[in-house]
Amino acid sequence: MSITKYGLFGKLKALPGQGQALADFLLEAARLLDTASGCQLYLVSTDVTDADTIWVTEVWDTQEDHDRSLQAPAIRELIGRAMPLLAERPEPGMTVNVLGGKGLA
Amino acid sequence: MSITKYGLFGKLKALPGQGQALADFLLEAARLLDTASGCQLYLVSTDVTDADTIWVTEVWDTQEDHDRSLQAPAIRELIGRAMPLLAERPEPGMTVNVLGGKGLA
């Protein structure tokens, strides 16, 4: 994998005790993204120190691929359903240039 | 992917102008980890706001797999060569429970 890809590390804070419920929504999003063009990685993780802090680690071929995916009705509908579980407004994710490594197609 | 995996998000700060050189070492490490058992993901990224800040995003089947990999002579030798490029002592990476998603085997 040589060409730089678009990476996005995002953190979401769930209402107390809602971490797993929020993660389930995000795992559903990952399934929806199975066919999303340019989506190389969409991982859902919980912070070992706080089960209500959820990390989403994304890698896309381009930012455009990522931005386009947010327009898909099924994704927008899912986001709508997940929002009530959030304890605070999500901060913008951290953007990185993914240079390469092991584990991506 | 259902079983929780061991995730480690680490940040390394290179000396001014040494970000790419440090990233190259880490990409070499990724190649060495190709055969490391339990290593599902080892991505090297640069922060879009600071090319001397390098992110390493790792996913392992278990923490033991990860810790064992640090004993490999080739990895230890590589770490030794990379250390002089660091501007500061690396902070411990952030540990997460990777629940699943898209992109891992």
Automatic annotation (TrEMBL), chains A, B:
Protein name as it appears in the record: Antibiotic biosynthesis monooxygenase
PROSITE patterns, A to Z: ABM
Domain named ABM: residues: 6-94
Keywords on record: Monooxygenase, Oxidoreductase
Organism expressing this protein natively: Siphonobacter curvatus
UniProt signal peptide: none
Lineage, top ranks: Bacteria, Pseudomonadati, Bacteroidota, Cytophagia, Cytophagales
Cross-referenced InterPro entries: ABM_dom, Dimeric_a/b-barrel
Molecular function GO terms recorded: monooxygenase activity
